[in-house]
Design a protein that fits this description.
CATH architecture: Alpha-Beta Barrel
CATH class: Alpha Beta
Distance between the termini: 24 Å
Bound molecules: zinc ion
Number of helices: 8
Amino acid sequence: MMNTAQRLPVLMYHRVGEPDHKRDVYCIHPDRFAAHMRALNKNGYQAVSIEDFDAWRNGAKSLPQGAFVLTFDDGFTGVRDFAAPLLREMGWPATVFLVTGKLGGDSNWQVTVDEPMRPHPLMAQVQIRELIDHGFSLHSHSAQHHDLTKMDPAELLKDLLESREAITALSGRPATYLAYPYGRHDEKVRSLARQAGYVAAFTVESGFNRPEVDAFRIRRLDVFGTDTPAMLLRKIRLGSNDGRLTNLLRYYVQRLLETR
Ligand SMILES: [Zn+2]
């Protein structure tokens, strides 16, 4: 049992393509994305599907050490154009959280960071079907990419139901997982998500997940387009968005002190 995963990281990417500017952390260049995946592979990491993660969380399946879940928010076209061919070659599954009311359109929502993101094209149904053929899992990032905590309950429930039904119809498989837009959620959002038929939801709070994690507060690590492969490896080892070397050293010193 030594080699089975006790805690799982979930990685979160957004756009794959040409970054808008040097500090565009929510976009990763295809070459760097490939370098990330190769570095993970070389260091004993292995992507597992979100469905396997859920089975592991429920105690129905064990996963090997080094297992992690790969997710892409929003459904940008670069996921299909650049990430999918590489992942297929590696045999690695991944999940896209789709904004169902905007398929084939642009990401015309505000980013919460200081600089607004330029709109970029989102996959249409035909491209999404190709992803399904590539073995991707499709789940919900809501219908409109609103801050769910700011919606009135009836409107929110409608949005969540609509999105879940649209993806289920598109993929032919139940869309049971939700990624909160902007990572924003509260008691009301979590309870309505459950009511809308979701069984788990993904946040942007960092850390590892143990099987006893709150199903509606699954943690994810924010991987930036500016992260070098070494930075990514530190993030995934630490379960933290802070992959600076000093943080890694602090972590090892802490572990040494704990085991004395
Ligand atoms: Zn988003």
